[in-house]
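Hi R.,

Here's the chain you asked about this morning:
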Amino acid sequence: MTLHRLISLTTLSLSLIASAFAQSPPSGAIPSTAFGMHLGSAQAWPGNDTLGRPPTFGYLGKSGEVGWGYIQCSSGGPGSTPPAYNWTRLDNWVALASSHSMKGMYAFYNGTPCWATPSGSACTVTYGCNMSSGALPTESLLVTFTTALVQRYQTNYPGVLDYELFNEPENEITNFPSSGTVVSKFVTLMTDEYNIIRADSSSSTISSPSFVTAAGISAYYTAGGPTGIDVVSHHFEPGGCQVDRIFGSEYLTGVYAANNTAGVGSKPLLDTETSSLCTSYAANEQFVMQDYLLQWSLGTSRLNWYEWYAPTSDYFSMYDGTTVYIDATGYNTLQDWLVGATMSSSCSSTSAIYSGGTFVDNAVWSCPFVLGSGSQGSAVWTSSNYSGSTSYIVPSPFNQYVDSNNTVHSSPIGSSVTISATPILLQVASGAPAPPGLSIFGVHR
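And the predicted structure, written out as tokens:
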């Protein structure tokens, strides 16, 4: 049963999550490159959403099956003869990005060919390619491959590729970060990659490895991981459908804090693979929209959604080869709202929503913007742990709102509108600025 709870935000005092606001949104207007997309295994360009709108994202996320183990595919074991390069699949992906005047990211990950790993390494055959399942490669072989890769694409597609030094080392490297020996070797390999990219592809943006734990970040930089990288990346994939987990110990007071401690927290922050495990496409639409709003508020300047295409009912995807789903609509609508807008301060909630691993309330979230038109805007929704809807009193100066289908609704100041976990955007139809001293909640400061 839908729950309606009337909230007069003119009388509520704000109970903010204090740690959340140690981070602040990036300055300036939100660019299209804030919205990245992984295409999925099909490497097909996204089609129109449920409203018939074409995709408008501005950056191409990582592609599958383009790692070293696929490019030099062999059934051989450790120490066997390296096969010839097969660049076809990666060429196609880079050409796709180039044809849309877009940059893309290549991530080194542990699809290391078994022939390039030390004797005794455990390997598994995937699509006919024998690859390691956690071993780090022989350094000289990685240097040869990295040099060939970077020089090829700087020559054939200059300025198209950016590089992430490694994908989720905690999940893909055996005994990282618990083994000092493994961490030391990993740092040596990442330094090699960094130096090659910097020397041979100066126009490329270099990202840190996409760590998923504070322990991994701390061990890596303590052991001398290169700090000259251009951007710092992480992956927010909470293993469920609660975006509010970004405020928990794993992310905000974990990964974010560890980057600050390591001295790289002032660099631009990217989420190079963000995704959910929602159980419906409608819930994933809510997750996508909240994810982009809250992570931008916390300083993340690009989120690459994982992913556009999946051939089965993976609700984090937007297309299954036949049908484009509602989450693609929310993704496009959010871009319509935000590209060209400026988030004027961090998002805030009416109450604490995450404490000690438990979701504690059905908070109302609000994110203030100066829209591209120059007028005020505010994205509003209820926290992701709350499945009902709430009656919300529209504060001054707003007099209309736009829903996730980009439909405009009249909502005079002081009127009641129903909000849920799917964000809406409050607007000023006349384009007039907010009265001085009045917050987006209608509370005089």
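Residues 6-18+346-427 form a domain with the Jelly Rolls fold (CATH 2.60.120).

Let me know if you need anything else.
M.
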